[in-house]
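lol ok so funny story. i was supposed to be doing the assay writeup but got distracted and ended up predicting the structure for this chain instead. priorities right. anyway since i did it might as well share w the group, maybe its usefull for someone
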Amino acid sequence: MKHFFTAVIVVSFMLVRVPGSAAEDPTLGVLDEKVSKLAAQAEDLQFRYQQLQKAIDKFQTDLIELRKAVATAGGTAPEELKKLEDRIAAVDAARQKDRQAIIEQLAKELSGAGAGKSSGKSTPATDTGEHVVAKGETLSSIAKTYGITVVDLKKANSLTGNDIKVGQKLVIPK
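and the output, tada:
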């Protein structure tokens, strides 16, 4: 798993690090920011994955000790064993679900970063003049992506504050 995250980070830097500076192409600054966020998320998720693996290992050790205790006592405690096995299965299922979510999120983010790079434009192509807010985005970062001001973005969307929500559709003024 560690090698997967390392590979994802290296690939994403390869996608973003092209000749020229961020001053020449504002999209590179946005992509750099996205790659940095992805790297931080990957490190956090890797840490959580390791913690879950430690918990599974502890549960398995507890299960082995419980089986030994039951064997030396000459009796059985099937309900205790079943509870412990269920806890192990639940933690492992959560770990697998988190792993899949991580992979899907990274793939989505990387495909978005790659698409932005390959377009050759300083602003994303939009046919509808709309933007759907993604996790971690701010009015400032969205405005910068489209080469507009925050004031214009707020005015086009009748926003009085800076609060936006993931999934919210924003009109992008032309």
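The chain has two domains: 2-122, 123-174. Residues 2-122 form one domain.
back to the writeup now i swear
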